[in-house]
Amino acid sequence: MAWLGWTDAADIAASGGYALDTTFIIGGVLKKADNSWPHGYITGSGQPMKFIRADGVILSLYQQLTQLVDEQMVTGAAYEG
Q: Fewer Cβ in 10 A, N or C end of the chain?
């Protein structure tokens, strides 16, 4: 994934008319020491939240966590299988 900045991609998406971003994924960083994975609402409520820039401006674009990444469905992948 290319890094533009904290909210640059959200600014671009909002200016293009997008209302919901689902690119937030859970990677291997959350894997527990016993090799298990957390379950449930990783970000808290599970509700979509609006992006906010560092200067306090609230963007008209919601972000929703992608609970299941494509790689989890690949046999032999580093996820739960």
A: N
